[in-house]
Known about the structure:
The protein is α/β, with parallel strands linked by helices. The protein contains eight helices and nine strands. The protein has one domain (about 5-225): Class I glutamine amidotransferase (GATase) domain (Rossmann fold, 3-Layer(aba) Sandwich), CATH 3.40.50.
Amino acid sequence: MTKRMLMVMTSHEIMGDTGKKTGMWLEEFAAPYYAFKDQGYTITLASPMGGQVPIDPNSLADDAMTDDAMRYTKDELARSAMASTIPLEDVRADEFDAVFYPGGHGPLWDLSDNAHSIKLIEDTIAAKKPVGAVCHAPIVLKDVKTSDGKYLVDGKQVTGFSNSEEAAMELTDVVPYLVEDELVKKGGKYESADDFAVKVCTDGLLVTGQNPPSSRPAADALIKLLA
């Protein structure tokens, strides 16, 4: 049986009060997407509002365009799927073998406190199926609880976009949450590498990656759990 992967992305495209565009970071979708696709997985894309996922324009800059990101720009099927994601409220955990959340700053606004997302992750973990999130997307874990009422990240090794990386972007005072702080608040054993170096944590069914370069390694870690 081919594995069924759900990828959940943001619908949010404005960076706080700045008026600047944000959204999903392309590499953080493209690298895992092609890692899963090349494994033969069936991939479904979802977002809070459904339809077109906004892509952070900074992730389309020349220095951000990795091989996977370039592959996406030439892939009509993937672009069409990105334009027609299904609404998150229509998604059921039992229809998939795993869930993966690409980052970008968007999730800090519309996936951080999203009740459908929280239920999806809780149901997926309860069914003993893995969940992955990279960069800013580990913010989706902050209010997720296990069946015994504890925070999912409590006592778990986790990573995500670090406070020092956010400071390097000069966005510390713009974003509604700092990923590192929120994971620590909920009992997570937060770990990070140097700014923009690869870091992935796997703890039980949970896979987290620190930043864009950690996207494919995080996907590979999730694939390993599904093997």
